[in-house]
Amino acid sequence: MMAVRVKICGITRLEDAKLAVCAGADALGFVFYGPSPRNVSASVAAEIIASLPPFVTTTALFVNACADFVLDTIGQTQIDLLQFHGDESPEYCEQFARPYIKALRVKPGLNLEVEKQRFASCRALLLDAYKPGVPGGTGESFDWELIPREMRSEIILAGGLTPENVAAAIQQVSPFAVDISGGVERAKGVKDADKIQRFFEEVARANKN
């Protein structure tokens, strides 16, 4: 099995970004969605990104944002990758001349094969838990058996991951990557160094099996 990649999302502070990178994060996520407790301004994100070492992918998370806001954020941050967590269409996602991933909230009845074809232009699908009225960051997991086996090696798995369950998630699903935010926090938007370290230890343990 190929080693599972890790994205730490909801970065709001430079010290948290450095903690994640030192622990082994492949990617960092910045939330540009006002209602989120992890929302960050483009100017703050730009300062953090400017201090990062090379080979760390930076990702901007949006939820049904107007195109001008996305373009302005790209211009200020020079972000690497876009992540859309709302009801965005493929045509909307494709207009920004940046690679993107599309988040889907998984619930019974969602046809992931159809969505994969619909968003054929995305770099990957990110699968998160469904909670009415909440576009992401719920802290809840979903039934991983709903993911078709032929898709599992391609997806980014999110939703309710913690140091306690990530090894089981990797062993059961074998995703391309895992994405965590709240599971390594000591407060919303503030990461916990011990939880981050334990999370990466568990990912490494699962990768060896």
UniProtKB/TrEMBL annotation:
Catalytic activity: N-(5-phospho-beta-D-ribosyl)anthranilate = 1-(2-carboxyphenylamino)-1-deoxy-D-ribulose 5-phosphate
Domain N-(5'phosphoribosyl) anthranilate isomerase (PRAI) per the UniProt entry, residue ranges: 6-201
Coiled coil: none
Name this protein carries in UniProt: N-(5'-phosphoribosyl)anthranilate isomerase
Species in which this protein is naturally found: Neptunomonas concharum
InterPro entries reported in the protein's UniProt record: Aldolase_TIM (IPR013785), PRAI_dom (IPR001240), RibuloseP-bd_barrel (IPR011060), TrpF_fam (IPR044643)
Upper classification of the organism: Bacteria, Pseudomonadati, Pseudomonadota, Gammaproteobacteria, Oceanospirillales
Molecular functions (GO terms): phosphoribosylanthranilate isomerase activity
EC number(s) stated in the UniProt entry for this protein: 5.3.1.24
Pathway: Amino-acid biosynthesis; L-tryptophan biosynthesis; L-tryptophan from chorismate: step 3/5
Keyword Amino-acid biosynthesis: yes
Protein family: Belongs to the TrpF family.
Top EC category: isomerase
Taxonomy, superkingdom: Bacteria
Name of the gene: trpF
Keywords: Amino-acid biosynthesis, Aromatic amino acid biosynthesis, Isomerase, Tryptophan biosynthesis
Keyword Chaperone found: no
A Pfam family the protein falls into: PRAI
Gene Ontology terms describing biological process: L-tryptophan biosynthetic process
